[in-house]
């Protein structure tokens, strides 16, 4: 009896286990193997050449600037995204007339793929085909080079990402807000707490799990930024918006060197792993 | 009833043998006998091409399928994804029977053994000498030929005849020197309003090589050494090209947006009718508004002469194709006079051959004839590391040319040129 229950359990778990093995563990092992090998894209595995691929990372003049840029971009995006999505969640938290409309409106950009959204914004920003410059000119203003300078290119991309993801994080925070029992606010009010006090001392602490999830998702997502820069800026102008994942792409598909690309991937994976452990620990300790 | 163990083992062994023989029986791989004229026996062939040259490929494939037993299944892949898809497939031996390729990337694939050697088949063609010479050359490794020209895309000057007339220039006299090109651009720009002299993709390495190198070639200089391992892009001729464009930028003769143009929209300016003269891909000819009065001219050298970058796609049979004779049947057919004239020239496209210019369609379309004549003199640069050096937005060419055009006017380009050489030789 116990034996057959065990067997049934294993059978139920088997599909997931197979899925994880095939789509997660196997590729991971392959990347590890690639990172240790001389592996040209067109020719395939040419044998071990440790540690050349890893040494090459440090020699790559684009690597450290890309790390710096990726961190800077992540900092900006995470602060803006969490701030804005929390604000949006608070605005639409109470059921009033019209909240349904605003919830849908804020969430709508989430339903678009990132590549499609990037192409859409590329069109908006384009001096050739975009509507923004003609609109500015109609208002008697000078046209703006939306992607032409390093600063403009960074902020134009940040606007896209915040527009695209604020609604998604709003939903997560909204669920968090709705799970806070009204009694707690009631008790705080009886104790004489004002609106701001109950926000900082009731809402924020009780929203911590949702905020933690939003933090981890937005940090990880931003550190792995690729599509938006690939489409909007191609890393330019003058290599000012090259992210780490773009370097991986460049090694693999411009320089045809899968070994070097895999080595950077392994380093990024290790960094993300450490970062996520730190984030989880920090969030758990304070809770 | 119990199944005897020994019998089970015997059945298993027999089954395994059967499966194994079934697997090995099908493909004869590259060992098949070469039939020089090709074979049309109802085989289904697979073919890949990139979206940029879809129109021409599709026209050829449709006509072939309609008239042959063999059937080709054409897959069109987005241009930006093409390298990724084809490269990955080559590494995994999963290439289709036929695949076209941006000709500048050809050396990567021919030297990696992704294409089948078709030297004998090409030599057996009675028009072999007429195939676009620069494409053939780039598809050759140590005397072995792997590729034939498929769709050609040349850089040529487009100029707006109406704007020329308004600016007091002769619409039938396009620039014949590079200085004259700049003069014309300035003259048109002086019309003012929405009208601009010229345009270029200032953040697009591929656009620069395609449109600026012909002036260097036409002036008798080279952009790389013969092996494609050393950059010569700080030569006096190259510097004069940069300086001329720099002057045009400083005087506001170039339409706004050039500085950030990554190559996605650089050809969309001219057809709107406000640009005087600019070098563009010849494939744009068929996409111009019908009521637009445009002229086409070769890109001139500093003191005259003419050249062009012969781009576009070459095509070959993949090394792992099991239908090489059938695949060649399509390639041979597509290069025959009738298809070249009726499917390409009739559409205003450049032909893969230089001996068919005297046809009824070009007689009515002098711009297309001008372009086709350039195939003979044009160049296709060769380097194993071409893409990662010149097309890659993070490659070393873009910093060199951007410094020369937008940076410090007295900058010494030697170090930046050395970076290009380092990338070519790595």
From TrEMBL, chain A:
**Pfam families, sorted:** BPD_transp_1 (PF00528)
Tell me, what is an example of a GO biological process annotation in this record? transmembrane transport
Q: Which residues form the signal peptide?
A: none
- Topology class, membrane: Multi-pass membrane protein
Q: Where are the transmembrane segments?
A: 7-30, 73-93, 105-125, 152-177, 198-226, 258-278
Q: Where in the cell is it found?
A: Cell membrane
Domain (ABC transmembrane type-1) spans 67-279
Q: Which InterPro entries match?
A: ABC_transporter_permease, MetI-like, MetI-like_sf
Q: Which superkingdom does the taxonomy of this entry point to?
A: Bacteria
Keyword annotations for this protein, in alphabetical order, are: Cell membrane, Membrane, Transmembrane, Transmembrane helix, Transport
Question: Which Gene Ontology cellular component terms are annotated?
Answer: plasma membrane
Sorted alphabetically, which PANTHER family does this protein's record hold?
ABC TRANSPORTER PERMEASE PROTEIN, INNER MEMBRANE ABC TRANSPORTER PERMEASE PROTEIN YCJO
Similarity remark: Belongs to the binding-protein-dependent transport system permease family.
According to UniProt, the name of this protein is ABC transporter permease subunit
Record organism: Glycomyces albidus
UniProtKB/TrEMBL annotation, chain B:
One Pfam family for this entry, by name?
A: SBP_bac_1
Q: Does the keyword Coiled coil apply?
A: no
Q: Where is the signal peptide?
A: 1-22
Q: Which UniProt keywords apply?
A: Signal
Q: Which InterPro entries match?
A: Bact_solute-bd_prot1, SBP
**Record PANTHER family:** ARABINOSE-BINDING PROTEIN-RELATED, DIACETYLCHITOBIOSE BINDING PROTEIN DASA
Return the protein name.
Answer: Extracellular solute-binding protein
Species, as recorded: Glycomyces albidus
